[in-house]
Design brief:
175 residues; alpha+beta; nine-stranded mixed β-sheet; 3 helices; 9 strands
């Protein structure tokens, strides 16, 4: 009786092993077949894209480009102006997005010495419209001070063929 039970257990284990081996082989075979069929592109499905060399462009805020130093009253006017990107032939490119950083000057009290010190904080965001939204324009123009900075970076523009590329950054320092 016990011998019969042992034989049944061994028979069940053998069947289980055989089933497991068949299962693993079928999974392995399916994976290989899927990779082989996915690796072969169908004729006519690959589209060659022409290489694109972006033109040399400049980013402007008013008349300022690259890094500019402006007086406080001019800086408050610049905050409300749109960002422009043009090339050497004066072709205008559409600004699709940019990041703007405002480096704000503050006065803080040093807890250890009790003396007032100048500190800078930064506020930044990604924008998809130019000029800046009214909330940003109003907050900046109300508090703009000497030694602060307006920094436009990661400027992405689009040409007439809807090709997108980066334009140079622009930094305005208030003196």
């Amino acid at each position: 009786m016990q011998l019969l039970r042992i034989l049944i257990k061994k028979s069940s284990i053998m069947k289980l092993r055989l089933l497991l081996i068949v299962l693993l082989i079928s999974i392995f075979h399916t994976a290989i077949f899927a990779q082989v069929s996915a690796g072969r592109p169908k004729p006519g499905t690959i589209t060659q894209v022409a290489k694109f060399k972006p033109p040399a462009v400049k980013t402007y805020l008013g008349k300022n480009s690259d890094t500019a130093q402006v007086q406080l009253d001019e800086a408050t006017q610049l905050v409300g102006l749109p960002l422009h990107v043009t090339d050497a032939k004066n072709n205008v490119y559409t600004v699709t997005s940019y990041q703007f950083l405002y480096k704000k000057k503050s006065v803080i009290e040093n807890e250890q010495t009790g003396k007032k010190e100048i500190a800078f904080t930064t506020v930044s965001n990604l924008f998809k419209v130019t000029p800046l939204p009214d909330l940003w324009k109003n907050n900046i123009t109300e508090s703009l001070q000497k030694d602060e900075e307006l920094y436009f970076f990661d400027v992405i523009v689009q040409d007439k063929l809807n090709r997108r590329f980066f334009a140079p950054e622009l930094k305005i320092k208030v003196k």
